[in-house]
## 1
Amino acid sequence: MKQARRLAPRAIYNQPVQTAQSSAIIQAENLTKVYRSGRIEVPAVRGVSFSVERGEFIAIVGPSGSGKSTLFYLLGGLTRATSGRVVIDGVDFGSLDDAARTRLRKQRIGFVFQRFNLLPTLTAMGNIEIAYDISGQKQPLDHAYLDHLSDMLSIKGRLDHRPSELSGGEQQRIAIARALITRPAIILADEPTGNLDTKNSDAVLAMLRRSNKELGQTVLMITHNLEAAAIADRILQVRDGQIISNTATAYAAPGAPGSAPIVPPAVAGDGASL
């Protein structure tokens, strides 16, 4: 009997992984999430299927209650799907126990939440350092890279301050630096500019775009702001738990996935597939 050929390992940001057969780093397949309260069922995500290629910058746009935030939690492995599956870099989140799912998140995904989620007893620097420590990185924290992030996000003089001593905009920028410090393969950002003024919003979006292009990070951003979404390669519009359109922006490279606009009609029934 022939011995199965092993795939050659490769490293993504100091994390050895197996080379995946597919170029998609995120795959959602017939993804459904139903919340239950007694006998009442509320479908938040309804039969959604789509993929994100390695190195893409995707914006998911929709109004409040459209299901985009639930989709964010499903893609990040922060909640389990009612049905369907989420595959991250060839690994099915649903096949993992809680410990393995946590390890995958720490190694591959950086989160930026709408609420900053900073630890109030630590300084800004302490929040960044503890995120790096618990990620399991074997290399020491790259202070030159942290300086670069600090300059880009205009937080260099604020790292010794605790969250209560920072403005909302400063706290959001610290949270973004915390997500980027481990150089994760995937950045999941939930309304990253929601609490920022125009100047700071532009700086944050530029930083996300730069990390996408320079570091090859895949970025998936949830937003209700079409102006912010325009910086992405593709915009997926969500309504009533379904993706109703998939449109390339001016940033999409010719010949890249989604480079030709695809705008399907509104889908009847429970499924939307892209």
## 2
Amino acid sequence: MIQSSTPRLVGTLLLVLVWATSLAAQPDAAVTGQPDARATDTQPADDLWQFDDDEDVETWGTLLRDQALDLTLFVAFAALALVSFFRKSVRLKYVTLVAAVVYLGFTKSMLISVVDVNRLATWNLPVFRYSLAWYLFAGFTVVSTVLWGRLYCGRVCAFGALTQLMDSVVPARWRVELPVWLEQRAALVKYGLLAATLFYFVVTADIAVYRYVEPFWMFTRQATTGLWIGLAVLLVATVFVRNLYCRFLCPVGAALGLLSKLTVFRIKRWSECNTCKICEKKCEWGAIRGPEIVMTECVRCDDCERLYLDTAKCPHWIILRRSPATSRPPSPSAG
């Protein structure tokens, strides 16, 4: 039985040996650069991983199409904000504030945060091609601040817009006017919060603390009970002290205030501004101190600029009317 099976075993071994020799004689596709015939029988030669040839390739065209709606809406909003600013229109200003709350706030939850300040300080920014709307938003904020001052705080920030809308409906008799000395010292608190928050970020790499120094999370409608209680207290306090958070507590306002020291187009002043107190009393942000407009506190709300151009209220124009000998009005001086 064993002897009869031996030829069969030998024949099998010979067949295996011939097959193995033929395989060894074939050129290696990796060496010659030619596709392996065995691979071409089952898959394309240039797609060893069997990816779908019809899969879309990521291009700037596809990236722009995917983000086109966000880019278009923000450009429209920015245009509205600038038109309302240059026209000094009260009506357009409030339209812009409502749009900021609805669009940037509750719809997109897109605000400049102290987290973004930390990102810039550490150069840990979002991937550009996937965050075009954010870069456009941040770029608009920085450029507008350098050109005109804290325009962002005055009519773009959704939370600031909300508190200004509150201020427009709260009866004036409810307001508590802080003494000037207290107001000026309280304005420094936001700079301390900015420094402390950035220091905490650097030491711990924990950005979650931003929720305790910024109420902007309210637009996401996601927070703990304790945070909602804190927000309620802040908004109630804002009823009595106008723009409380923006003036005294906002780290982003502090950062933009420092940047506004570079402002190019400042509010101009008449020579009479050295003695007149009308604009100083009108300013709700504590940004006018005698003849000086403090750019770190000014949010370009337009109030003083409308008074400045009002020929019936501004002493400059009244003095000119009473001095007919004056042939030419004096040029305004930069404030």
## 3
Amino acid sequence: MALEYIIIIFLIISVIISFGIGANDETMAPLYGSRILNMKQILILAAVFAIGGALLLGEGVSKSVGDKILLLDYNNPSINQDAVVMTILISTAIVLILSSAFGLPISSTHATIGGIMGVGMLLGGGTGVNWITILEMSMWWIASPIVGYTVTYGVVKVLNKRKLKHLKGFKDFERSENKYSYIILIMICITAFARAGNDCSNAVGIVVGVGDEINLTLLLIMTGFGLAAGVTVLGRIVIKSLGKMTELRPSTAFAVQVPTAAVMLIGTIQKIPLSGSHLLVASLVGLSKASNTPMKKGLWKIIVIWLLTFPIAAILSIILYFPINLLL
């Protein structure tokens, strides 16, 4: 197949993946759960920051995913680079779109890297994947939900003590919550901006590894619009699912968003692919424990899906490689 047609296919599938990532983006869930904005306002806001974040912050993390994880010798005639990239893109798209259709907030990062690991081990054995880089990234993946849980738990405890000490009556409480509404809105915008820059790497990272034939800026713009379309068309499903996981008010939504915004922004600047889903859900669990409010059913199902994302994506990419290799 001619190179220009292959590149066009890569671009189309990258946009499909970005649509799936946007559809699975639950960043705005605290706004919905705390009733600060209605769903229409939330989706408009999410779309704007998806485009801006992908364009302005997406390059660094995309290059990390595209250049540092997969270690295959493309000079080897038995390895078809185009088939490798196509396989990872298609397996990631399938996992993301299916999970979004069922309202499951999986990690798009894990879906992409799981697919990369599957093809890498299939074609390169134990040396087909940069395990040192995977280990470095996994330290962030393990630490980020722990930080989310711990910081949220601590912030909620501090806020509760402050309310008991300083707030006298319902009017004081309402004024305090109104102030937090503005603060949480700003913090979630920061999170959405950083997360779009981080998540777009799962759509374009492996394509970046193809070479200089593809204009990265154009690809990031297309990905940003794909993220925006996904969150607008299907995002409400996951946003509602996470927003109802535990009781939220503007002040508690603030507690949930503090670690999420900080870790996502720092990780994106450091070019580390992170899971915003893990961060947010861990923060919601920390909120539930600190405030002694029950979690909605379904938490364990979400955790199981997280654990299964790597092997499912890896196995799917291995299965898909053979027919795709024959076609290309």
